[in-house]
Design brief:
heterodimer, A: about 260 residues, mainly alpha, 9 helices, B: about 260 residues, alpha/beta, 6-stranded mixed β-sheet, 4-stranded antiparallel β-sheet, 8 helices, about 35% helix
Chain lengths: ~260, ~260
């Protein structure tokens, strides 16, 4: 009984180490092909459109509601010690540093990462990836590199827009529901906002974009077992990207703000 | 003095491949001469597709040697493999057309990506190649999802021959097609291979297809080539495995794994 238990733990540890090694190798291979020619600008552009432009509605809606909720909650908390004037500052810092990049990353993981895993997974199980190889085309260059480049470049752009929309959401609640003066709210927003608040959020977004694309490509690339395998790959890509985004968020926050 | 025999287009020596404890290839030796059409027959699960994938570099054999035009493919660098693979065309069992591309983009893919041809010129070649397999200009802008199974196979055949390869692989070219469409594909395979003067390596368990497209037949069983000879000799092979397979008898030395009576 005990032997089976220990053996089970051993198997899980070995599987974890093997998967981590395989993922690291996949990421290294992907990064190499991002830099080595030939580069496919058309495919990168198509992926940028898919990740950036077509994700705008979902990320924008998430940002505006998050800004609105944040303003309300901060108002409730800050009014307990007569610090209502801090609402605008806390909203903008909360959105730019943390909620903008994390929520955009999670939403894009659900929308784009899942689609990548499903598309590449279907290509894998229908031998389309093998067909690429027989047509002298490296699948890493053709499928993985454009998605990694587009994800890394487009998520910061999305987050920048989400920051503005999130602050706008806070502004709408602040002026329409909490009776703040519009000019004062905006002054408080920008007076205490520092460049590092925005830059750190954009750096996080670039890392999250890379993670989303990497996990979508990795899980799709290694899917097997027909439709069920593609389904598993899609689920795994969203779950693993979400967990890695939250872990990376902590690490980057430590790097930027540790004294 | 006799002239030296021309080196084979493909040469396999002692190729082994296993998946876990299951040994699929257990020392395959095989040669494919220039201009020859070789068909490998064998039951489902005997490793025909694995053998093809090993030659293409999609799977790595555990040991053995695979040479294409004299170049060793086992352990070759990726860039060098890409260069060698340019000589090869491949028709996949399920067609494996790219869903996101139109029919003409599928056919022109190798010309644009591997041979650096402009899209305009590649489109013209795609139209000519599609005409060779009996498809008109009306299908050029369609997506693969809009095609029937037979049309997909024709488009896949057009894609395989568009780059005028020196070697063509056919993986179960007639599987899943009705007998008439299967015969149409067989005729196309024969005419395309003859036009190109290419060497062809096909795998199938459809004996009608094998008899039509093969110059030579080899049978894969138990991970090894157990018989090889001209297609005309297959009915007189004196090999009980070959006899059972070509006649499709349930009784014989080949035992299917049937768990329930």
């Amino acid at each position: 009984m005990l032997v089976h238990f220990v053996a089970g733990i051993g198997r899980a540890v070995i599987a974890f180490v093997v998967t981590t090694g395989r993922l690291a190798r996949f990421a290294g291979n992907g990064l190499y092909h991002c830099a080595a020619p030939p580069i496919y600008p058309l495919l990168i552009g198509r992926q940028m459109l898919s990740i950036g432009y077509f994700s705008l509605p979902v990320v924008g809606l998430t940002a505006v509601f998050t800004g609105m909720v944040l303003a309300l909650q901060v108002y409730v908390g800050s009014s307990r010690f007569n610090a209502e004037s801090a609402v605008a500052t806390i909203v903008v810092i909360g959105i730019t540093r943390e909620l903008g990049p994390v929520l955009a990353g999670l939403m894009v993981a659900g929308r784009v990462g899942a689609a990548m895993a499903a598309e590449i997974g279907t290509m894998r199980v229908t031998e389309q990836i093998d067909a690429l190889v027989t047509l002298s085309t490296n699948p890493f260059k053709y499928l993985v590199a454009p998605r990694l480049i587009a994800g890394t470049l487009m998520l910061p752009a999305l987050v920048f827009v989400a920051d503005i929309i999130g602050v706008l959401g806070g502004f709408l609640i602040g002026t329409g529901r909490l009776d703040f003066n519009g000019g004062t709210y905006l002054k408080n927003t920008f007076d205490f906002l520092e460049t590092i608040d925005v830059v750190s959020g954009l750096v996080k977004a670039a890392v999250f974009g890379f993670i989303v694309s990497l996990m979508g490509c990795y899980n799709g690339f290694h899917s097997a077992g027909g439709a069920a395998g593609v389904g598993r790959a899609t689920t795994n890509s969203v779950v693993s990207a979400s967990v890695l985004i939250l872990a990376a968020d902590y690490i980057i926050t430590e790097l930027f703000f540790a004294k | 003095m006799n002239a030296p025999a021309p080196s084979p287009k493909i040469s396999l020596r002692d190729v082994h491949r296993a998946f876990g404890a299951k040994v699929v290839l257990a020392g395959v030796d095989l040669d494919l001469a220039a201009g020859e059409s070789l068909v490998i027959i064998g039951g489902s699960g005997t490793g025909k597709s694995v053998l093809l994938k090993c030659i293409l570099g999609l799977l790595r054999p555990e040991c053995g040697s695979i040479k294409i035009d004299g170049a060793e493919m086992v352990g070759i660098r990726a860039a060098e493999r890409e260069r060698v693979v340019r000589k090869i065309g491949m028709l996949f069992q399920g067609a494996a057309l790219f869903d996101s591309l139109t029919v003409w983009e599928n056919v022109a893919f190798g010309l644009v990506q591997a041979h650096g041809m402009s899209r305009r010129a590649a489109r013209a070649v795609a139209a000519t190649t599609l005409a060779k397999v009996g498809l008109g200009a009306d299908v050029m802008e369609l997506r693969p999802a809009a095609l029937s199974g037979g049309m997909k196979k024709r488009v896949a055949l057009a894609r395989a021959i568009a780059t005028r390869p020196e070697i063509i692989f056919f993986d179960e070219p007639t599987t899943g097609l009705d007998p008439i469409m299967g015969d149409v594909i067989n005729d196309l395979v024969v005419s395309c291979v003859r036009d190109l003067g290419a060497a062809a390596l096909s795998i199938t368990h459809d004996m009608a297809s094998a008899r039509k497209i093969a110059d030579r037949v080899a049978m894969l069983h138990g991970g090894k080539i157990i018989w090889s000879g001209p297609v005309a000799a297959i009915d007189h092979s004196d090999n009980p495995y070959v006899d059972q397979f070509i006649h499709g008898y349930a009784q014989g030395p080949i035992q299917m794994e049937v768990l329930a009576p």
